[in-house]
Amino acid sequence: MLSATEIALLATGIIVVLVTPGPTNTLLAAAGLRAGLRRALPLIAAELTGYLVSISAWGRFFAHAAQAWPWLPSLLRVAASVYIAWLALDMWRAAVALPGSTQRAGNVRALFVATLLNPKGLLFGGTIFPAAAFMHLPAYLLAMGMFACLAAPIALAWIGFGAALGSGRLGWLEPAKVQRGASIVLGVFSVSLAWAALH
């Protein structure tokens, strides 16, 4: 089974990575903007399925590769922390633009493919999920259960965010401030991930 530290790091990693803007979240928000909250709900299942396949494939690959190269997990975590730090800096500099209501928000298949190819799947499978999750079925079920329980409400929040923008209820919201706040959270997580990899 997973230790309390592994569970805490996993939960933190899932939340921090999933709340940050990316291709899947942009499609979810755009669907909420274009179709409304209720009609966009089936996209949550598409996101969860896409991540399940992607994380499982990457996780199994890295778990077996780590047996041949024991230093690989630590190297991947350091590389991931550098990548997340770069994302934080990039997010601080640029505002996130959601597709307008006239643009196609995507359907279930499009969202599944976007999630399947999302680099976050590699990040989860290679660094954030503990290796034990891909070696022992109980640990896998626990980790994936946690992921689904955290990912579904975050996806719902992104859809709701898009729907609120579409209704004009968030006219007071400044995207730059939201993005800078998210970049600070990303930066803190980057440091914690590097610390865990090196200690």
TrEMBL record:
**What is the topology of this protein in the membrane according to its UniProt annotation?**
Multi-pass membrane protein
Entry keyword annotation includes Acyltransferase? no
Instruction: Supply the InterPro entries for this chain.
Output: LeuE-type
Any one annotated GO CC term: plasma membrane
Keywords, A to Z, come to:
Cell membrane, Membrane, Transmembrane, Transmembrane helix
Superkingdom of the organism of origin: Bacteria
Q: An example of a Gene Ontology BP annotation on this entry? A: cysteine export across plasma membrane
One of the Pfam families matching this protein, by short name? LysE
Give the UniProt subcellular location, in the record's own words. Cell membrane
Give the transmembrane region(s): 6-28, 71-89, 110-133, 139-166, 178-198
Which molecular function terms from Gene Ontology are attached? amino acid transmembrane transporter activity
PANTHER family recorded: ARGININE EXPORTER PROTEIN ARGO, ARGININE EXPORTER PROTEIN ARGO-RELATED
What is the name of the protein in this document? Threonine/homoserine/homoserine lactone efflux protein
